[in-house]
Amino acid sequence: MFKPQRISFERLSDDLRAYEARYGYSTIEFFRRYQNGELGDDDDLMMWAGLYHLYLTSLPIRQLMRQSDLAAA
């Protein structure tokens, strides 16, 4: 069973770059092809898609936190 864990934005970015190096194309290109059903549902690809989804949903929060830090300074 999958155990939930915390992951930093930097680690998330590093993991996405590792998938890009392993498969030879960008995460954006991968996700387009994955959503179009061109790549199947291999566990590794589903993990890449999940990490990218997490990246996309956490980016606005990270930007908001950065703005809050700048306003407080």
Structure description:
The chain is mostly helical. The chain has one domain. Helix content is 74%, strand content 0%. It contains three helices and no strands. The chain has helices spanning 9-23, 27-35, 43-72. It starts with 8 loop residues before the first helix and ends with a helix. 4% of the residues are buried.
| Tally of domains | 1
- How many helical stretches? 3
Shape estimate:
elongated
The parts where pLDDT drops under 50 for at least 5 residues are: none
What does the main sheet amount to? none
Helix content: over 70%
Percent of sequence in beta strands = under 5%
**What class would the helix/strand composition place it in?**
mainly alpha
Write down the Rg: 15 Å
Overall number of strands: 0
